Amino acid sequence: MMRTLIFTWCFSVFSLVPSSTLSQNTKIVVDEDKTVTIDEVFNMISHQTDYNFIYSDGVFDNMGKVNLKKGKVKVADLLDECVISNRLSFSLSEKNIIIINKPKPSVVQQTIKGVVKDENGMPLPGVTVLIKGTKKGTSTDFDGNYTIYADEASTLVYSFLGYKSVEIPVEGKTKIDVTLETEVSALEEVVVTGIVERKKESFTGAVTTVRGEELKAIGNLNIIESLKTLDPSFIIVENNNLGSNPNRIPDIEVRGKTSVSTDNLRDEFGNNPNQPLFILDGFETTLRTIIDLDMNRVASITILKDASSTALYGAKAANGVIVVETVKPKSGKLRISYNADLRIEMPDLEDYNLMNAEQKLEYERLAGFYTESTGLDYGDQKLLDRRYNTILAEVQKGVNTYWLNEPLRVGTTLGHSLYADGGDDVFTYGVGVNYRDLKGVMEGSNRQTWGANIDLTYRKNKLNITNRLRINGYDANESPYGSFANFAKANPYFRKTDENGEITKFLDIEDLFGSSNSNPLYNGTLNVINNSDNLQLTNNLQAIYTFNSKFRLQSGVQVSKGITTTEVFLPPEHTNFTGASYKRRGSYTNTRTDNFNYRLNAMATYAQVFNDKHRVTTNVRGEVEETSDERLSIRAVGFPLGTNGNPAYAFSYQPDSKPSTAQRKYRRVNVLASMNYAFDNTYFVDATYRLDGSTSFGSNEKYSPFWSVGAGMNLHNTFHINPEVISLLKLRGNIGSVGNQGFGNLSSVTVYGFEQYVNVFGQGVTVNTLANPDIQWQNTLTTSVGVDMTMFGNRVNATFNAYSKKTDPLIVVIDLPSSTGVFAYPINAGYMDTKGVEAIFRVSPIYKPKENFIWTLGLTGSALKSEFGGFDNVLESLNDKARQSASLVRYKDGYSPDDMWAVESLGIDAGSGKEVFLTADGVPTYVYNNDDVKVMGNSRPTVEGVVSSNLRFKNLSIGMNFRYRVGGDALNTALFNKVENLRKYDYSNQDVRALTDRWVKPGDVTMFKSITNFDSTPISSRFIQRENVLIGESINMSYDFSNTAFVKSLGLTQLRINAYMNDTFRLSSVKVERGIDYPFAQNVSFSLNARF
Fold it and tell me: Are the beta carbons of 467 and 478 closer than 8 angstroms?
């Protein structure tokens, strides 16, 4: 310390006095070769000369030692080696030598100004401008302007969330304007929740974001079908009845169920109570709108899964939220984008295992159809013999009608989409139209969708106004042939037409069958109408006022109006009216639904960064909403022959009925507060509180709070991990509560209806809806933890999530005693607890992005289990109904909603051909007893996911995605309905196993009862089978011609062609009929994308 004080004083004094020149001849003696420190060199000089050295402590730290040779050495040379070579300097005042660090050259600071814009020429506020290697910097204002002070040797770094960072050397420039380009992975860095945007690196929620290009790489049918391939938590429940029907609305689950699934729980306007909430451009929308949305307009989709991400939506978010963002118009010169889609669908009939004509006749013979003691009541044995011999003669003539392909065709879909956009820094516009004609694989079934949109944006100074007008509609028709099951039932030994080639109403051979077998082709020749059309108009207006880079206000208004009309006409010749009286033949039903909705919201946002480390973002938001729905339905019966469905020709309304109406109006209001805090991009916290009010629940339970709290840590920023090994390692977790209003409106007031009959006391009224003013909101407590990893230079990416969801209380519908006259009364009862895990893993064995050569292998998987509790005996009425209807479902504490309940079967007694059951006490018996039912399986797969391979080489991309399901059980309906449970008087075609696998004689070891046993067979464990499935979900290939000379010569800036194959195969351990009412299909598709 004393040496430092002396140094400071001396330097201050001597710096004012000219230095003397060190004598060039002064020398010292080195007695031997040695290596010493600089301090030791100065000591030697001081001892052998009159010079003294003054310097501060530590000035020679980290400096090398000096090698001295034996002999005499000049002091001046030693000083050069010890001082000058180490970038020090010294000054001489008489006999004192002062050692100091060389002063740094003076730096000239200069003022640099400029503007930062995006690639569309729009100014970017809030861009961070830093001097590279320091924490000194600034940010752009609302107009993208910035001012910074730096020396000419500095380099400026421009960075903004969602854009590529840019580095520009100053090099004496005083004005630097910068254009930032959108980062290809920008959507992976930003979480778009539909209400606020969050940086993904500091967000605690579990989300998946998918770009529009990724969706289009899977297929071109709709975004829902593509999304299921890309995220394991998003599941489309396979519908074995509706197959590939273009007009069906799928059942969707995100992380399982949160409600009891019963149709009684929904009102006329409600949705599936386990369906996620859908948000389109910041406003709520319907699943039908999302399915019909033009895929080419989609910029991104974000799946919000847990409390931190979904609590923003409060009472509607228990089943997850799907946020869809469409493409925004870009400024600049006019651009025109055109997209064409062609889809070819081929019916998939591989899972049908029906008898041919010879097999069917042999089955009927063995089953005793043509034996007087067991056969049909047609008289004596001679008539039965004649019947058999006549059919046998037809079979021997080669009659073997394959009915399945009769109502089918190769379905085609042709879609066109056109979008034009442009503008300048102040005003941008985008105008688009689209049309798609989807023809299903059943004749006459089709769906035509169309839409138009106008997007306008005005941005001036601090005001930003965006208006989006969307008009869309559809015209849908079902097949006039009706259910495909009618063709699967048709007997193969019947001819399709008579001897004149005419399609007859009934299938008959020499009038042996009378009119008991309808020709399934006949109804297709009639003027059957089954049509739905819709027109929807939606306008979204949003205004944002930015006061500064820290504070802004925004407000939005949505107004939506829709009309849907459904018309069904069955002419009097239709086979449904066989045997009906003349004035009851033919029917006409017309249903019109009108809906109107408006939403108003306003939000204030404050964001600030303190000391370059503390980032705080807060939001306060309020919203009001009103929805009005009205439905009117009329049904008329009895039409003259040859009429075209005009209800004016009907003889009457449906007997004992009248036109029906339904009206619903409900209002919602909510307030929201959210906060996100991040420290040094390492530690972060999210918190959300929302209070919802709604008229959908009991009048005594109008309001309910929802909340979430989450925290996380970027471990890669904490432990200074080598970024070339691990560039992302984030831990996150959250807990919170959300609600569910998907089932519609639960009345809190009693609604009465007038009876149509009048007696001496006057006209009576009935209770249509009994009020429950105390019914509570469903509340789902969600806990979620997860980890995100990126390793080895983006070669390995992994995400793991584990979660728990407990819905308490549930809302269920029960039947009250018959004396009340109420058969569907909503109550709160019990809870449902769901636990699950999900994982996404991708590895790139080849990763050369600069060469555009990347090969990525992927594996996703999810597993979950749900359990009921707290019911006690409240739902015994529902369980009684299930027992009476032979349902597989029960509502019992400790069991899963996916459990399959049946009586355990020990198989078929080889001696008698009867089924042997096991009682609850473990005793074998031939008697089936409903009280012996127990859990015999679970329909939920043990694990389900997708295995994928994606290769990109230059302009060529090839992808393959295969879905797997392991574990889980299925009811084999083909065995239950077409091998057993066959009626004695039913001449429908059946599964071939009814002939080959049923018991015939004592000693036969079979799985099925006697072929002559026509008793009703209840559901037993024989029909519940373990199912493992592998599906060829998507195979795709694309080529980008954008950079070729040919494309440029056409004046195009982009040209891309895609080819797809979807649902190419399905391998299952259970052989069951699929597509009962409408067959499934395999698809080949093509897409062309061009931009001018």
Answer: no
